[in-house]
Structures are given as C-alpha cells and as structure tokens.
Amino acid sequence: MQPRRIARELALLSIGQLSSNSDRLASQDLQAVMVTAVRTLVTEVQEALESASAELKRGNDRLLDSELKAIDVESSRSMIGDAIDLTQSAVNRLGLALDFPEFIQLANQQSVRDYTLELITVVHQKGADIDQLLEESLVDWQLNRLAHIDRNLLRIAVAEMMYLGTPEQVAINEAVELAKRYSSDEGHRFINGVLRRVTYQIARH
C-alpha cells in the first residue's frame, strides 16, 4: 500500500479529533495519530451495531403487531432488510478494525506521518474556502447534513486538488476507494459525483 494512501486513511479517521492548532498538530507523533484513528473506527463500529440493533427491533415489533396484514408485513420486512444491511455495514467496519495490525506496520513511516498531518493542517487552515467550494458543488444537499465520514472525505480530496498539487483524477479515485471502505453503499457514487462537480467549479475559478 502506498504511503500517501495510508496517510489519507489516517487523516480521514483522525481529522475530527486532532487539534486544529498547527503548532500542536506538528508535534503529534505517529502513535498518537494511530490511537485517534483506532478510536474513531471503534466508535464507527459501535454506532453501526447500535443502529442495526434498533432497526431490527423496530422491524420485529412491527411484525409482531401487524396481525398479518399484508401492508404491515411488507413494511416490517423492509425494516428487517434495512437492519440486515446495517449489520453488514457493522461487520465490514469490524473487518477494517481487524486489518489494523498490518495497517499500523505499513503506516510506521515518517512520510506517512508527515503527509497525514499535512492533509489535516490544510483542511483546518483552508477549511472555509474548501467548504464554500463544496457547498457550491452540492446539489440538493447541505455540507453540514452529510455523514461526517463523507464530509471529511470530500474535504481531504479538495485539499489535495487545490493546495497539495495532487492531480484531480488521482484525488477523486483515492476518495472513491476510501468511500467504498468507510461510507454507505451508495457513498462512493455520491463522492465521485460531488468531486467531479468540484473540478468544474475549480476550472471556472
């Protein structure tokens, strides 16, 4: 796995929890970044499991109360189907957590730490400009209504395109691959569409 790919993943998982103060951020060591990333991933797994459990209970309760009415049976089936999808998402997140020992070994490079912190620093320092560009590129969505994973994925990709000299197609492809790992089933398509509109906005500016 390439150092920059690992750095993007670490930045995505730790960006919301590391200090936005550039001096403090520069003093972070790789271990601190890794601990933050692991905590984020654990939280993601817990939330996914809790959502799946709640949806499964709702579907089960509706099924028990339906008295075999066709419309209610279909509704409860749909709820249970959603619960199964959420459970699958949680299982996938657990799979990512199990990959972390190998990930930590690969990430133990100075270049990974440096690029991770550079990404986070740029997103914090240029956040207003990045968010404005994203708002202009969203169709029927507001940035603050997106899942935080999707929001931070978009911010990292825009930071790379606008400030770190990453070719637009590379930034888009990397964001899409991360979305396949961490976003919802349709997340990677959404990320791809927004970032393609971002490139159009950048060209206009």
Key structural traits:
mainly alpha; 205 residues; 2 domains
Q: Low-confidence segments, ≥5 residues, pLDDT <50?
A: none
| Count of beta strands | 0
Question: In terms of structural class, how would the helical and strand content be classed?
Answer: mainly alpha
Number of helices: 10
Please state the overall shape, judged from the principal axes of the Cα atoms: globular
Task: Tell me the count of domains.
Answer: 2
* Rg for CA atoms: 19 Å
Helix-strand topology string: HHHHHHHHHH
Main sheet makeup: none
Distance between the termini: 34 Å
Write down the oligomeric state. Answer: single chain
Helical content stands at over 70%
What average pLDDT do the residues reach? 77
Into which percentage range does the β-strand content fall? under 5%
